[in-house]
Design a protein that fits this description.
Length: about 80
């Protein structure tokens, strides 16, 4: 006969929800979550720092594309 406690645990492991997965990832890999994107995905500190460094490199060589607040508003509102 199957152990009911083991079966219950197995079912819980099969149905890991996103917030639990984020917590587990942060806990075991020691990654800092610093925010979330518009789709609710985690933004990790390491990724954010890499993006900023990439932007600074593009700025240094004159290839960083930026937009004013008005340009952003026009693109969003059409």
């Amino acid at each position: 006969m199957e152990n009911p406690k083991k079966s219950s645990i197995d079912k819980k492991q099969d149905v890991v929800q996103e917030p639990e997965a984020i917590y587990m990832n942060q806990t075991f890999q020691k990654q800092n979550i610093i925010g979330f994107d518009i789709e609710g995905n985690s933004i990790f500190e390491e990724d954010y720092v890499a993006d900023i460094q990439d932007a600074l490199n593009c700025l240094a060589i004159g290839k960083l594309e930026t937009y004013s607040s008005q340009e952003v508003k026009r693109k969003i509102l059409g």
